[in-house]
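REQUEST FORM: STRUCTURE PREDICTION
Request ID: SP-0412
Submitted by: Lab K.M.
Chain count: 1
Length (residues): 192
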Amino acid sequence: MQAELKKEGQNGEHMFNGILSSVAAGRAVSTVAPLASNIDYNLHQYEQAESIMYDKLRILDHPIRVLAGKDSCERNRQFLGTVAELIDAALAGKSGNRPLCYVYDSKFNTLTLEHTEKVKTTEVKVRGVKGDSLIEKKYENLLAADFLSAEPATGKKTYFTILVGTEGDLRGVPVQIRYQPNWWFQIVLNLH
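STATUS: Completed
RESULT:
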């Protein structure tokens, strides 16, 4: 990553990857394309980057991956739709440890809601670089949902936790997501 950042700084060129997928029951098609840009896009510039990426994908000569047949997922759901489905089931008291398949980049994956736990109250405090308060919020009556995402072909497993509201306007809304890719690095996303 450091080498990539140094290269970007010297050349003024930023590298991104775009993925375009189409998923239907029993079939998925995906292609991935690199994009070099003189703009270091952020999430607020998504629409601008999206149109440039679509133009790049239209003239792409990269291979298109197709997932069909016995290795496919009969559900035509993607990752976020599967997360939402499992959270809705947990909030309705119908959660089980059954894995649901989803497709990402024409690869068959499974998502399992492994454990849920009621959280009476939690406080979120996020400070800025200068110590100023960016977020200071107290949430009540949450559900902590522990997930496992697995890619059967490679054996890769990813664990993450989502705290969701259980009532009112926050019912089903993630107020915090925790992901720890290794022992020394944890990402915490908070509702703002």
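NOTES: The radius of gyration is 20 Å.
Reviewed by: T.R.
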